[in-house]
Amino acid sequence: MTRHGQRLLAITILLTAGTWAASALTVSIAQIDSTGLLIHQSVNAYVSVTDDAGEPVTNLPEGAFSASESADGVRYTTLPVLRFEPSAGANEGICFLLLIDNSGSMYDAADSTPTSDPAKMKITHAKAAVRAFLASMTNPRDKVGLVVFNTRYRVLARPTEDKERIASALDQITKPVPEEAYTELYASLKAASQEFAGIRGRKAIIVLSDGENYPYFSHTGKPHPEYGRQVFSHTESITANQEEGVTVYGIDYGKGEIMDRNLRTIAQDTGGRTFEAARGEDLSGVYEAIHRQVAGEYLVSYRASTTPAEKKYLQMAVKDQGNETSATRFYFSSVVFGLPLSSLSPALVIPFVVGLGLLWLLTFVKLERRPGPANLEVLQTRVGHPMTRILPLSGTKTIIGGSRSADLTIVGSPQVKQEHATILFDPKDKSYTVVGSGDITVNNQPVKTRKLEPGDVIDVGGATIVFDDSKDKKQEKP
Amino acid sequence: MTTVTSRFIFLALGFLGGLAAWPAAEVILSFQGGFPSYLAFLTLLGAVVGALMGAFFGAAEGITSRIKKRIPSGLLLGALVGCVGGALGALVGQAALWLIGGVFLLSYRNMQWVVLPVSRAIGWAVLGVFVGAGEGVRALSPKKIAVGVLGGVLGGIVGGFALEYSRLLLPGFAFFRLVGLVILGLAIGLFYGLIEQGMSFGVLRILAGELKGKEFLLSERRVRIGRSPRNEIALPSYDDLADLQADIRVKKGEPVITNLDDRVAMLINEEKTQERRLKLGDVIKIGSARIFYKYG
User: Is the separation of the CB atoms in A466 and B209 below 8 Å?
Assistant: First the structure.
């Protein structure tokens, strides 16, 4: 298995993909690999650094990077870097989700004038661009999914390696009715972040849109069929994508000034960028640019702390020409036992002592029955049930049977006669004898009458009865 | 002691084991940040929790068989096996937690309610496997190991979920780990008893004498009967028996009893016999011991 193959994703949630500093460097933590955490106490971070134009910056030295961790996102501790490797981006596939604007304006011409010629419509160009994009996908491990949005958000194909499926799904895109023609850009970007379920590695949304967020509720005053009166802000789509580690790339299908003013921020804050593109060839350039960005990532491996936290914030700071830019993302650091208590009480000694004390007491518990006087115990019955389970023998005659007036009554069994068997006591030699008026066995041998010994098993019409007379026997012992 | 009582003892021991392991776990957890690595931290934590729970379960055999001599060795061996098992369980469980959390993470939104509980339950199940198998390792019985493993897995899963959901449903509840550990112990005890019975070939019940009413599960391929406390069915107070008087082996899925010492006669259903396949309802007499073979 290759080093990349062994790489397993940590649960990483991108918090802030880097602040856009004057030096125009954008830092983002593309992936956190914490598989070495248990054995080596190390965490690998794949850090992407891009310049103002969104091009990867690949010539930074090790000293430019510093890793620090925090359990609360407030207090950070700097940690030693164990390994540094430039251009270490994984050759694993990237999962793309193409998010195509299918609002009314996409059926206008590129100069935003209405047209009835499908060849002039922006949507036609967008579809062609997507086909070109699919054709340009060279890494067989890449996945791609297709979503269209307008008033509604609709998944046409979940991420798949089968590019043919995406190409044929494109044909399902049709012009929306006016009610459906709004542009729920932010809501859709937020929803799209959830389409990467179960997918590890680099995740990217490429949104092709010709305009700005144009929510249904804000512009019609009517509740949206799904979102109701909720109007989404662009920060919500940023947070959702950061949390899922999704990088957003925006493709402007209209003229630059019409493009949603926040799309650039959404892209930058998630580690991506926007492109002005109108032609299919441009979109294949986008594909290459994204792969180039991933390939240019730095591997920064550092020694992690053991501070208890469900999730640990990693802050990766990059210093370049006196300017420091950083990105924070968190990974899953929960331990099987959970988090420690906020404070330890001396009272904790109590359950410990109680536990040990009760164990000690348990060793003294005598659960055996004391040898009692002669008795009969019904162990089991095939049919029916006994009125009494244990019957001490008293008197000279004990009747076992189905009759209510019997001393030991077995009810509900047709095989048990009213007076099925009798136990007779002989005071002379203090012995007991069983006499059957119906069929009985003693120790599985059919008998009519039989002198009983302790432990003998009498079967009375399917009821198993044990005779015991241990007390007398004990008293006889010298 | 009947098999029902034995199961109660197992439950009680599981409960007490969880009770005693809890404070130890809390103390170690409070020093987590001071450990140089997760490896060291989890090894110690798992070892201590495993040792305590293992010790409690290790005492079970001595308590239920009423042979006190077995208790200290059972405790010690249970603790040792539990210690190793607990450490391994904690590490494997942690690896499972991080692996599942990392690879199979569906979405961060699912983490609190699905990923964390599922992966923690798996972690606890692994821990349960080792704690549960401890008694079998101690007794060198593959069957008991299998019983313990199954009991531990089920107990661990149930306990793990209990731990996780008690934490989620009762935020700020300081005793969530106590609840989880106690349920873990109870569940291991419960499933151990249930599975041991389910995998057994029946029960031998002592009908008379000092151990009257005591029931032994035939859960191993060979069960020895005699006065020596080393026997699975140890009858020390039945003076006329040999140290190793008889054994029951499972042959072709059926138990066969063999008298191993001719000085004492063995009667099955009043017939003198040397070796015989046991049928449910058989009454076995060996010297002063009377044993009834029954189902469950």
Answer: no
